[in-house]
Amino acid sequence: SELFVVRVEHLDNDWQAVDRIVGGDGKTLPGDVMPGGAESKVNVAADMNLPVSNSTLSALGWRNLCRAMCHEMQIYKMMLKRASNLNEDDVRESIEELREICPQETQEIRRECM
Prior knowledge:
The protein has 5 helices and no strands. With 114 residues, it is mainly alpha-helical.
């Protein structure tokens, strides 16, 4: 069976690619489908005042988080590689984005996490 992956970091492009694969024209976004004013009704969190009182995480905290999420990251990489809508460049880009946060991750799917 086919697996489609829609990455949050690349939401628009991934969603349009999936739409084309399943027979659509790739015009799936509110501005594409309903021109004129549709964007004003879209809920965009970036436009809201959402204060965060503490958003810092120490280097040790990031390392611990990466270790704790190791199994999930391997599943994520497996899904990226199996996705019908992503090419090799897309997969490489997403794993590089993951490596910006967790540098010990590689392109390969690890069998064991420590």
